[in-house]
UniProtKB/TrEMBL annotation:
Organism from which the protein derives: Bacteroides intestinalis
PANTHER family membership: SULFOQUINOVOSYL TRANSFERASE SQD2 (PTHR45947)
Organism lineage: Bacteria, Pseudomonadati, Bacteroidota, Bacteroidia, Bacteroidales
Residue span, Glycosyltransferase subfamily 4-like N-terminal domain: 17-182
Domain Glycosyl transferase family span(s) in chain numbering: 199-358
Name used for this protein in its record: Glycosyltransferase family 1 protein
Amino acid sequence: MKQQKVLIVASIVGFIETFNKDLIEYLNNAKGCELHIACNFDYFADTDEEITKQFIKKNKSEGVYIHNIHFTRSPFSSQNYDCYKKLKAIIDENNFDLIHVHTPTVSILTRLAARTSRKKGTIVMYTCHGFHFHNASPVKNWLLYYPVERVMSRFCDYIVTINKEDYNRAKTFHAPNVRYIPGVGVDIHKISKIVVNKQAYKESIGVPRNCVLLLSVGEMIERKNHEVVIRALSKLQNPNIYYAICGKGPLREHLEKIAKELDVSDRVKFLGFRKDIPELCNTADISAFPSRIEGLGLAGIEAMAAGVPLVSSNVHGILDYVIDGKTGYALSPDDVDGFAKAIDTLANDKNMRESMRQTCINAVAPFEKENAVKVMINIYNEILK
C-alpha cells in the first residue's frame, strides 16, 4: 500500500506545537504517513523557546519534513508573495494526499497555492480557529473578511470549525464538507484534579495571601483586550483585588503605562510566559477573559476546568461554554463598568464563587482533549483511507 503524504501548514511553530502535537503523533506514527510541516520555525515570541526547539528536534528525528517559511499574520504584508512562491514549490514538488492548513492569512496563501494539486486529487482542509466576523464584530470586519472567506471556501474540500457559530456560517459557504470539532483539546480532568496551596502560590507571584486573585492568560495583543480589565480594576478601588496577566506580547509597555496612569500598577502583575498555567488557574479566585475575537479560547476553558468563575466577553466561541450568571458573567468587550461590577460581585462573595465551581467544570466537559482529538482523527481517517 502506498504511503500517504500529508502537509500541515500554519503561521508559526508555536501554533503547530500547541494545537497539532497529538495529531502529528497520530499521522506520523499510528497512521504511518510521510508528514511535512510548513511554518515559521524561527518565531519563538509566544513560546518557551527551549521546549519548542526540543519539539522541532523530536519531529526531525522521527522523519518529519520541516519547511521553514517566514509567514506573517498580516494579509497585507509584501512578504506574503515570497511565502506563496515557496509554499507553491513545496506543494508542486510533492504529490500530497492531504494538505491541512490553519490560521487565516496562511490559509489563503495555501489554498491558492494548492489549486493545481487539488485538480490532481489532493484534498485541502482548512481548520478555522475563529472567523474574524461574528455576532459582536464591527461592520468593517464583515465587509473585509466575510467576502474573502466565502470566496476562498471554493478552494478547499473541508472546512473544520471549533465553535458552533462558525460551523453554522461555514455551512452556507462553498466547501463540500463542513465539520465541527469541540475545540482543540484541553486536559480538563487533569486541571480539575490539581491541588495547590493557594495562599502560598499567591505569595510566589507577589500577591498577598488573603487577597482576591483575578487571572488572565493570553498574549498582550489588542485582540485579547486586557486593557478593559485594568480599567475595571481602577474603577473598583479595592486594594484587596489583584490582577495577574500571563503571557508575552507587544502591548506590555502600553498596559503597564495604563496601569500606572490609573494608579493600579501595584495590583497588576505581569507574569510573562508561564509553564504553570494549570496551577495558576487553580490558585485564581476569578478568571478574566475579555477577548474581542475568540475562536473558542483555551484560556477560558482551562480556568473553568479549575472551577474558577469566568468574567468574559460575550462573543463568538466563548459563548459555546459560558453561562451568564451561572459560570460567571459575560459582557460586551468594551463594557468597563460591566466588567467592574461583575468582578466586584464575585470578589465580595466567596460562597457564590464556590457555588459556581462544579457548574464551570461541567460546562467545559465536552471540550476534554480526548474528545477533540478523537473527532479530528475520525476526519483524518475519513480522508486518508
